[in-house]
# Entry
Amino acid sequence: MSATATTIDHAAPPESGPRALIRRLRHGDELAHLLTLVFAAGILLITSLLVYELWINSQLSRAKFGWMFFWTRVWDPIFDNFGAAPFIYGTLVTSVVSLVIAVPLGLAGAIFLAELAPRKLSDSVAFLIDLLAAVPSVIYGLLGIFIVVPLMRTTIGPALINTLGHVPYIGNFFKGPNYGVGFFTAGIVLAIMVVPFIISVSREVLLTVPRDQREAALALGATRWESTWQVVVPWARTGIMGSIFLALARALGETMAVTMVIGNDPKIAASLFAPGYTIAAVIANEFTEATGDLYLSALIELGLVLFLMTFILNGLARILIVATQRGGGHPA
Amino acid sequence: MSRLRLAWRKSLNAVMLSLTGVAAFAVVSILFLILGYLLYNGGKSLNWDFFTKLPKPVGETGGGMANAITGSLKLLLLAAVMGLPVGLMAGIYLAEFGSKTFSFVIRYTTDLLNGVPSIVIGIFAYSLVVLPVKHFSTFAGGVALAIMVIPITVRSTEEFLRSVPGSLREGAMALGASKWRTIATVVLPAASGGILTGMLLALARVAGETAPLLFTAFSNRFWSSSWSQPTASLPVMIYTYAIAPYDDWHRQAWAAGLVLLMLVLLANLGCRLALSRQGAARSV
# Structure
């Protein structure tokens, strides 16, 4: 049997020097190891190259505007004066609006699936929610333009202006002309897009909470809701926070759906009904039209800012989710 | 007093629990709402011309998106050819060879790359491929999509390789097979179903990507004659047609949306069903 011959090769004492290395490579194992290692290292290379390209190509803009880039509210391609403030504002506001809508909805949905629904129903609903997460973002944009924007103009917008618009303090966010496009519309579309992520990750996390925690709470006379809200959810809270960060990272970087419904106007307005702009949307709209080198460089610096924002959030999300799955956010 | 409190707790329980149910079903119903809307609006506008004709000049009605459909297929082919092998090999490294520290670094980088917003991937592919040659190309779009395919493939490949029982590896080794032979002839075939499904899922995900194509593959109202020409693609066509002011273009955007959604959802449905069946078989 030829296989025995191979084992004998193995048993030979290790040699040193380049010739021995070549012999070992020819043997196969080392070669396969090296080959796969090269590809794995390729991922490292691609990612570093990505950061490097963003850094190098935004050189011009970084040198000219420095830190003022973040505070300048002007975006004027004609006079080559660029500031990121309206875009950073728009990105943050739309993401916050989307989370305000998506977190209660997602958390409630996850609680239902993890705590109440029978396993079979829970699994099939989770399956459908995974499908929802697979819908391309341009489809959300399409539905946003033709359904959410008209609905916002005729129904949701006026309803909110008439109710929340009269509440002191918060009222300021719900005033002013309502065009249908704007921060709030983008927030609604984003909420629909990130809710599947919150539900599926939170459900997984809730399912890892030990059964005896629930049983102990119920045995003490808690209602089902009290056991869920006061025992199970606090136990899983780090993981749930992780799912929210994940959703936030996605909302920040989402491009197409937002570009199609936000109105694309680089202004900072208090009203959520005003049209705005986000980092991703301005890159999508103006990149191919950027004529000057400085213009292009400013857009790439915006890309760098977006990259850093999502980088930090994704890192935090991962740490939180791993921490919960390693044994609960809460010492028992 | 205590009776009142009990009644309050019980009704709070009932109200909150039913609200969670309402939330879950509201989210699921969104999926059916999306499907229904696209089937209705897209179905109305879908016809044979859509699959066989080029877009008509602005102002004329009719025409189709044949070039965008082939364009999308070409982009996916490029993404598959460039992205899948890298993802597969790196996945094998992580599951079979990796040392502890380096694997951690690779895994972390993979997740990082996976989380990069697609528009930033577009900028990267632009500066890598478009800037040096100074024109948009199908190839540049393929590079952008390939970069997005890699991290998804790596993680799914690693996961499926890890789920192959250790006894299979030991069995092969005990027969005297070397490590790479064990991997190539025993472990990979055992995990191949899952790995292929994972790859298909990765392709389905990038098939709907628009943002990274805007300034790499760009768009084209005609047939793209070579890999170095810009090309139309379904997602970019949906975007340009939806924001344009013409009713006929909106009609075609719905049709294209329906075709894209159906492709993506069917691929997902098939893959996920196949995976859950495999999972069931394995746990038995």
About this structure: The CA atoms of residues 5 and 11 of chain A lie 10 Å apart.
